[in-house]
Automatic annotation (TrEMBL):
An annotated Gene Ontology molecular function: galactose transmembrane transporter activity
Keywords: Cell membrane, Membrane, Transmembrane, Transmembrane helix
Transmembrane segments: 23-47, 59-82, 88-107, 114-133, 203-222, 253-270, 290-311, 318-337, 343-365, 377-396, 402-421
Localization per record: Cell inner membrane
Name the UniProt record assigns to this protein: Glucose/galactose transporter
Cellular component, GO, one term: plasma membrane
Xref: Gene3D superfamilies: MFS general substrate transporter like domains
Organism: Mucilaginibacter gracilis
SUPFAM superfamilies: MFS general substrate transporter
């Protein structure tokens, strides 16, 4: 017999008796997500120089990191069924710490595939963390305010994302413009010495990261974070899903996964290519290294807007619709302008992208009930868009130029707009 309780109601009862609010703990985890994820915006130009790569090769950084979400999403859902949310989060942090340690031999040897392996392992840990934390925060309260809670998490994520490039860039890209100019006149042996020194700069930051992630693993494991049982549905939802036997019977979720794929793809392009794009526009790397922080700052502004306006003034689907239209506008503007103005439009895509993640999750997970964990796993698979679309951009940038590569974003934003208008309402006719 099913319990007549919403998961959020169960969680609310437990939160009151457990001291530190779970939302603060999850907020700390989202901070970690942002810090680790948006280091890629610095690693791409850094490794492009250290390992002598072209645009497409350097964007394998994003590919290695985000493809792990596709590989690990379903296994993550299975893992969470056995571990529960809290232990699953601790496991994810531990795996991320291992990935950080792989950067040490990678930096010593300057072997690019080793860097990519470390990024893949970190992405694997993040896949488990994301599979647990996103549905957790979604059901930790009323569904109509889910976008607001995820927006709060987004601020934690993007504040960390804005800080991370500045911190790592100050260490790894110090004197990068001068080094780039000197490399032209160096002998092969001198180049190897200079690039080995450049490569070694990431060792200390990633040792520190591994230590912090290890400590967080212990803290989360022994925390008072309550478990939420998403296998239970309220009576109305249970009746609606009584004949549902497969996640494939929820087309609004499947369309949501494709939308997630495209959204993450354009978000990663906006955040991770802006530094190299600025350089291609004749801007010094010492200045361009701050551009991803501007993109993330625009996202923070958007998340604050979401907290203030959703759902009080804006419904979640309306927020997604407006964000998609802004994305189309900014992408086209970036393509047809030049210099700092064009870079500014790329940064403003952070504003357009900000409300997509918090709006997508509740729209795609609506009505899933006992299918919530597997539905979450599929949405996490959609994060692989961050692996594929940047490579498409990189191929276009190498064939044409860095600016024309941004055309890939326009159809992506248009499909996101379709999902916000109609796609999230599509229901299965299978009884």
């Amino acid at each position: 017999m099913r319990e007549n309780h919403q998961p959020s109601a169960i969680a609310a009862k437990r939160v009151k008796s457990n001291g530190l609010p779970p939302i603060l703990i999850i907020g700390a985890l989202f901070f970690i997500f942002g810090f680790v994820t948006w280091l890629n915006s610095i690693l791409i130009p850094y490794l492009k120089m250290a390992c002598r790569l072209n645009n497409k090769e350097s964007l394998l950084v994003a590919f290695a990191f985000y493809i792990s979400y596709f590989v690990m999403a379903i296994p993550s859902g299975i893992i969470l069924k056995y571990t529960g949310f809290k232990k699953g989060m601790a496991l994810g942090l531990f795996i991320m710490a291992i990935g950080a340690l792989v950067f040490i031999p990678a930096a010593i040897t300057r072997i690019y595939p080793l860097f990519l392996l470390g990024l893949f392992i970190q992405g694997t840990g993040l896949a488990i963390l994301q599979t647990a934390s996103n549905p957790y925060i979604t059901v930790l309260g009323p569904p109509e305010s889910a976008a607001k809670r995820i927006s709060i998490m987004g601020i934690c994520n993007k504040v960390a994302g804005a800080i991370a490039p500045v911190v790592l860039g100050a260490v790894t890209l110090k004197g990068a413009d001068e080094l780039k100019a000197k490399l032209v006149s160096m002998t092969t042996g001198q180049q190897d010495v200079a690039l080995n020194e450049l490569s070694s700069r990431v060792i200390l930051p990633y040792i520190c990261m591994a230590v912090v992630l290890g400590l967080l693993t212990v803290l989360i494991y022994f925390s008072s974070l309550p478990e939420i049982n998403t296998e239970h549905e309220d009576e109305k939802l249970a009746l609606a899903n009584i004949n549902k036997t497969s996640i494939l019977q929820f087309p609004h979720l499947l369309l949501g996964v494709l939308t997630m794929f495209l959204y993450v793809g354009v978000e990663v392009i906006a955040g991770d290519t802006i530094i190299n794009y600025g350089v291609s526009q004749g801007i010094a790397l010492s200045t361009a290294k701050f551009f991803s922080t501007i993109t993330l700052s625009c996202m923070i502004l958007g998340y604050i807007t979401g907290i203030l306006c959703v759902p009080k003034f804006l419904k979640q689907d309306v927020a997604l619709k407006g964000s998609a239209l802004l994305g189309v506008l900014f992408a086209i503007a970036a393509i047809f302008t030049h210099g700092y103005l064009s870079v500014l439009f790329i940064a403003l895509m952070g504003l357009a992208n900000s409300l997509m993640w918090p709006a997508l999750w509740p729209l795609a997970l609506k009505g899933l009930g006992r299918f919530t964990k597997i539905g979450s796993s599929l949405l996490i698979m959609g994060i692989a868009g961050g692996a594929i679309l940047p490579l498409v951009y990189g191929a276009l940038a190498d064939k044409f130029n860095a600016q024309q590569g941004y055309w890939v974003m326009v159809p992506a934003y248009l499909f996101i707009w379709y999902y916000s208008v109609k796609g999230h309402q599509v229901q299965s006719h299978t009884s």
